[in-house]
């Protein structure tokens, strides 16, 4: 991977991380104004927890980029696997939080208002996207294992 690509990706990761912090700061105000009759504290807690999951994934990608830059991604010690597993766990947790938020909104009848429907759709999208990305990263982890194995075999031959 070329250096400009790594730098551009890191700039985007910093922007995403900063945006996630801002979203956490305003989560309660948005939830309270959108879900006026329903207590917004639960939705705020779910939103902040889901955003923390996104921040964990960003940190994992940052660490993996460092390993790519230092050409340590193919080490057999499993250091890269640790960060990939952490990202999978965070994505699966975000999917569960999205599902829990959707169930809470349906049980609290918060979907009777247009703003409640919008937040419910966001929760459903979070659940679906989190699950899909977790499964995608599982596939990518298997590809990484195959690449590590092939890299080791090639190193033995050379």
Q: How would a crystallographer describe the biggest sheet? A: none
The assigned structural class equals: mainly alpha
N-to-C series of helices and strands: HHHH
Mean pLDDT: 89
Helix content: over 70%
Number of helices: 4
Q: What is the number of strand segments?
A: 0
Beta-strand percent range = under 5%
Low-confidence stretches: none
Radius of gyration: 19 Å
Assign an overall shape.
elongated
Straight-line distance between termini: 22 Å
Structural description of this entry:
The protein has four helices and no strands. It has helices spanning 3-34, 41-69, 79-107, 114-157. It is elongated and about 70 Å long. With 158 residues, the chain is mainly alpha-helical. The mean pLDDT is 89. InterPro entries: DUF2975. This is DUF2975 domain-containing protein.
Task: List its salient traits.
mainly alpha, 158 residues, membrane, 85% helix, elongated, 4 helices
List the SSEs and their pairings.
Layout: H1 3-34, H2 41-69, H3 79-107, H4 114-157
Summarize the structure in short.
It comes from Herbiconiux aconitum. The chain crosses the membrane at residues 39-65, 86-107, 119-139. The chain has 158 residues and is an all-alpha fold.
